[in-house]
Sequence to fold (232 residues):
Amino acid sequence: MRVSLLFELPEAPAVSVLGEDARYPVRRIFCVGRNYAAHARELGNAVDREAPIWFTKAPAALCHSGGAIAYPPGTQDCHYEMELVVALGGHGFEVAAEQAMDLVYGYACGLDMTRRDLQNAAKAKGYPWDMGKDFENGAVIGAITRAESFGTPGEQRITLTQNGETRQDAPLSEMIWSLPELIADLSRLYHLAPGDLIYTGTPAGVGPVAPGDRLEGRVEGLEPVVLTIDPA
Ligand code: MN
Fold:
């Protein structure tokens, strides 16, 4: 018998998949920080290969591409970060890098929206970043393309325009940690499963958004991610 609940929660958010009627339900959102050297430097951080820097966002933070959102609350310095998102379709725990790509279902364009002032204040005190990263509409995502249709991530360019002006432009190959390395590392910390998304870090050129902005992020071979900030 099904357990009865005191009240209904919203259904798990689910992302469109190119060429599929069914959507991809989201279970967890993992994100990696400082995965492009030039971006790490622009934020004043050391560039190293000690270990990937992980953080998470709740599925409730998901925002679908094409939407318009209010300027996020509690911040005076909300930034865009354009990222390749990996959508997992398999189970894995302590997987080797050589087998890690077998877990990938597909890829999408995503925006890791960041309340930079809150993140910087937390970093300065050694406090958790959560309030800077995990907030409503903070994980924007475009439609997923199945891995076999996209091919192998490599020299494809990842770009972002803000009101038509290019702000970010780099090849995916500039990642410090490759996708197999990221998935293998994360699988030492979690039992990975279908529905797990990984935001794989942003290239250089992050910056603040303003009311009325239109952001458009692209990775060659994928559907774009588009976000509008409501006018003031
Ligand atoms: Mn990021």
Summary: The chain has one domain: 14-35+50-205.
